[in-house]
Design a protein that fits this description.
With 86 residues, the protein is mainly α. It has helices at residues 9-20, 26-38, 40-56, 66-79. The longest helix is centred in the middle third of the chain and has 17 residues, at 40-56.
């Protein structure tokens, strides 16, 4: 995303984890932050992602019930392509 077109809300949602992990290039990071400066909804979304990471980061996989683990795996398999596919 190295053009000067402002990011859309959808793009911000897609980039939120990369942003929090510091994985965005400098230009995209600036576009991301520029969007946050004018979009309170995306700012609220980013705060929710941060809170989720803080809470779930303390949960070890073995602490999850089999039903919870299966539910999470299904949820992610529905939104992510199978491994080995782009």
């Amino acid at each position: 995303m190295n053009d000067s077109t402002p990011l859309t809300c959808k793009q911000v949602v897609e980039l939120a984890t990369d942003y929090l992990e510091g994985a965005l290039d400098r230009h995209t990071c600036q576009q991301f932050e520029d969007h946050l400066a004018v979009c309170p909804d995306c700012g609220a979304y980013l705060d929710q992602v941060r809170q989720t990471i803080n809470v779930l980061g303390a949960v070890a996989p073995e602490q999850l019930s089999p039903a919870t683990r299966d539910g999470l795996m299904k949820a992610f398999s529905d939104i992510l392509p199978p491994r080995g596919q782009p």
